[in-house]
Amino acid sequence: MSKTNKLERVLAALEGRKPDKVPTFSLLFDSRPIDDALGARHVPVFRYLQNPLVGRFVDKTTSLWNTLSHPNLGGVVYFSNALRADIKLGFDAGLIIYYGLRLINHQEAQDIAGRVYKLVDDGAGGLYGMYNGGVITDPQSWKTFKKPDPARFAQLSRLYFSFMNFLWSGKIALVASTGVSLHQDITEGMGFANFVRWLRKDKGFLKDIISYRTELIVEAVRAVALSGIRVIWLGDDLAYRSGPMLNPKILDELFGEAYAKIADAAHAGGTKIMFHSCGNVLDLLEMIANWGYDGVHALEPTAGVTIAEARKRIGDRLCLCGNLDITKTLVDASKEEVFREVEKCVREAEGGGFILAATNTSNAVDATRLRWMVEAAESIS
Q1: How far, in Å, CA of 189 to CA of 113, rounded?
Q2: pTM of the entire structure?
Q3: Which of 81, 96, 358, 360 is the most exposed place for a label (fewest CB within 10 A)?
Q4: How far apart are CA 126 and CA 137, in angstroms?
């Protein structure tokens, strides 16, 4: 199958069909493995920021850096580099994200969900944002919180996705993330303990936030469809390694209708949509399928999830995607170990759609092992 048919391969899997070979999907958006794949120098941005003169300069010019790093400018450059790395490594599909992150100063950043990030060393002198709490603490702080206008957000994201589709369509299958979610954005935007407190104290307050964020995501999903991209990845963590963060019944009552609206909007625009959640999601698979999603991603082996058990729980109602470990297999495992893990995933996925992918991205992931992962998938087909 030619390069121009990589998208067909991914769509076939999401529809529960068996393509000519196992599709491979890359989530690379950490700079170190991208640089390693491209043979580029990893720029030690964090180390530069430790210089007092540089820090003060950045603090005085944050508006400039926020303009340059906007997804419609810096995002195009950054994720184009990620896609170049994906193509060089041999992947069928690559993730692109429309993010909403702005510098507060040279030490902190904040996103459109109200999350605050501490800027730390990525382990190689580069920059990484470590979650450091949320700013939405009560109804008053939510009222005064600067929220993106859904129509404007959709308009800008459509420009981004349309341009990326123009640049990369036919070279690799694009998987679009709108950069916004429901459960994860809300719980992290206010802190999980605070979320639970308001769940008991004033559920209406949470429903107001859910209503707004649903509109924001639905409009963004429609924008993706209008851009010509055919696959959407909704990143929204619902589980710990031990199991769901919320009682599944409460989760469905609070968010189920909203998740279904998002899936309906994707399908109305002619796109497929995958649901991503880290952790042990086995008890949530049926619910995710009922909400209307085409696939589910992560399926973390370190959380006790196997492809065999996931297939047993959900049959062919969801395309299964992921299951390749980023703590050992794609960090420092031998080539034989990588091949063995890939073969296990593919073997257990028999009987329904499957896309091979890492469970997530990390600066610790090794580009060489990602290449081995793709080679292993090709050797099986």
Answers
A1: 5
A2: 0.96
A3: 81
A4: 31
